[in-house]
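Async update (no meeting this week)

Hi team, since we skipped the sync, here's where things stand on the single-chain job. The sequence we agreed to prioritize is pasted below, unchanged from the tracker. I ran it this morning and attached the output directly underneath so nobody has to dig for it. Comments welcome in thread, and please keep replies under the output.
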Amino acid sequence: MNQDPGGLMAALEHFAARVNGDARLRKMIADWERTIALEGSDGAGGGLRVSGGRVEVVDLPAEPDIRLRAASDILEGMFRGELSPTEPYVDGSLQVQGSQEDVLRLDFLSLMIWGE
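Output:
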């Protein structure tokens, strides 16, 4: 994977810009109010807040609605669109905690942005 020097937070900024720049995606999340924590195994962390049809990068939230844990390079690759979350999820290197509805919506959002 090509990783830029900005690491996880830069990948999250890239993801947020993609979502916020797409009217179809903003409409899809217009009624979704969630906080997402991303925790890298090397201690890197960050968060996303979804509110009002927009995605904002935030510091690692203490009590998120959804929690993603993986090696930082996996999280970075996923949020840059270089890596589908499917394989790391299936092989157990990506752990996802949240309601089934939230996890499905996050999966669909990822698919809409990056494809499979």
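Quick observations from my side:
Helices lie at 7-20, 23-28, 72-80, 86-90, 100-114.
The longest helix spans residues 100-114.
Reply here if anything looks off.
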